[in-house]
């Protein structure tokens, strides 16, 4: 075999184990400025990381702290202050604004029962540990990014968080009554009260939840802990037709501002779906009066209060339509109660190259100290950059576009000290800090690395740009181009042509930015080239690019990927007899389309939780609107099955071409997938079996759409690599 590909399973596993060690940065907080007696200033940087532990079969979360000496505008010295500490059981944590206290929501199992505690730490003492489970004021605390929050009041006397609404105990009509209580004591009184609150016939009522990644999260409520009084109250006044989340304290702690998502007539999947009808609200703590701050005709997210507590920026996009779109950055003036658009949607990038805002979540803090600028990390074509927005002028400046690092993520900013994670396809995440230059200055940010990582010299990467041929131009949205990341081994032996693995992203409205990808890095170290295609419809290229795809899935996206592959194969670097295709979700949809529409071209196919039949998916997915929109139809909540629509859906689905498939297919399915139900993969699996096409199906219990648990991810990789090797060199 004239190749340089690693094929021995033990060697592959060793490579995977080596590269899976690199942790990812999930959070950073900047502590208060401390001035030493000699006038030196320093701040503590608290960071949280996540790392795969293949032996414990879990993602391990740990923290590490650093100290940064500065003069409020530049870093003088920095270094780690201690080693890493695993943080197990901590659902949420947050230092108080002064840094004097820390709140922790902790989950632990006591005598076989899961319980949740809200802890208040000060210096070296755990001052309070409130058993939230025993209080029975609400259900489980929300720890997710969609609804969850843990916020200190400005006064540091109250804590705000989100939990599941308390549901009365349900019992059968035929359950025997508890024996008459002999004596009335506190305990008995509690049991008696609970008996009264118990309802019959409600044990099996269906409670819809918010879908994939939010299973069991149905009715969030805003909760406030009065730290002095040790009592928890559920905020009144939130309208019954909305689910609140992403809450924070209003100026002066007079009340709470939050995002409310409409959940009538029913809930649709919310994860990766920022296009759900939602508004900003304010609920007054005293009277419980609730006020809607934004129009209610759009979808909003990530409200962030300015340091001077005068304005709130937030992201806004249209309701329904493509699930990820170009957002507007809007602002609500707390005192005039007026909203304004700071940065509008970008249909086509202009000369300045700014392609629009595609972030679905702003960083925890994103304001400059002067309350004039906002920092946003978001995709700009195939990179992810830090953008500085001047909220007075709406001007957008990239702080990182000249960098050779492909992906920058703002973790936090406090008093203009930015904490970022940055990485590239050949460089795992690094932790850096740097001061935001003064407003209107032309200075570049001076970045200081707190935690470095070495560039992998064996990996080379580049961004390729493609212009579709005239016959594939979109007449409604003409002149659009698209890109792909090409990741390949730096050293290639003479005479060796590289095998190529083609990977279209899912979404379809998402994007591959030049970030660190574990799978692509290991495949590259094994000797494969990997082509990660950002076909038309990807985010980061303007709203027109996104709008060009709905109604054209299964043709435009498929042709874009094939055009990119055939363009790359025109060179003599790659072996066109050794091309595989691999994708997940909509990327799996494309992988299955490609082997059906180009029979024999791909020698192996891997498909993770693929969409294989839009017509059969619409009735079982948590995002039925996605099926309608991507098939080219408008969605309304009262829409009903229509044979003509189903016919169109079927015609745009990979299952339509399954009779042409010759390529061996590996399917990997998550048992708990609410997004693309596993029956989609099974439908395709059976069709291949019936045609006697080599097919293998891996079924991962306890895994959902992302198949991101350590077992599924590591086992999945090994099987993917060996499947490709088996069929590219048979
Ligand atoms: C961009 C995005 O995620 N859109 C959502 C509506 C979504 O879940 N789409 C799926 C069909 C999908 O393709 N998801 C991709 C991102 C995946 O890899 O899971």
Report on the structure:
It is built from twelve helices and 39 strands. With 730 residues, the chain is α+β, with helices and mostly antiparallel strands. The protein has an eight-stranded mixed sheet with strand order 32-33-35-34-36-37-38-39, with helices on both faces. α1 (9-19) crosses α4 (518-526) and α1 crosses α12. It is globular. 48% of the residues are buried. The model has no long low-confidence stretch (mean pLDDT 96). Bound molecules: the ligand CC(=O)N[C@@H](C)C(=O)N[C@@H](C)C(=O)N[C@@H](C)C(=O)O. Ligand LN4I5W3F binds next to α7. This is Acylamino-acid-releasing enzyme. Belongs to the peptidase S9C family. Its EC number is 3.4.19.1. Residues 22-448 form the Acylamino-acid-releasing enzyme N-terminal domain.
Set out the fold topology:
Layout: H1 9-19, E1 24-30, E2 34-35, E3 41-53, E4 58-70, E5 75-80, E6 85-86, E7 90-95, E8 101-110, E9 113-122, E10 125-131, H2 132-135, E11 150-152, E12 158-164, E13 170-171, H3 186-197, E14 199-200, E15 220-226, E16 231-234, E17 242-249, E18 255-262, E19 278-284, E20 290-292, E21 299-305, E22 311-317, E23 328-333, E24 339-343, E25 373-380, E26 383-390, E27 396-398, E28 407-414, E29 417-424, E30 427-435, E31 448-451, E32 459-466, E33 482-489, E34 498-504, H4 518-526, E35 529-534, H5 543-547, H6 556-569, E36 574-584, H7 586-597, E37 604-608, H8 614-617, H9 624-631, H10 643-651, E38 665-670, H11 679-690, E39 695-700, H12 710-728
Parallel strand pairs: 13-14, 34-35, 34-36, 36-37, 37-38, 38-39
Antiparallel strand pairs: 1-3, 2-3, 3-4, 4-5, 4-6, 7-8, 8-9, 9-10, 11-12, 12-15, 15-16, 17-18, 18-19, 19-20, 21-22, 22-23, 23-24, 25-26, 26-27, 28-29, 29-30, 30-31, 32-33, 33-35
The site of ligand LN4I5W3F has 18 residues, from helix 7.
Organism: Pagothenia borchgrevinki (Bald rockcod)
Subcellular location: Cytoplasm
Keywords: Acetylation, Cytoplasm, Hydrolase
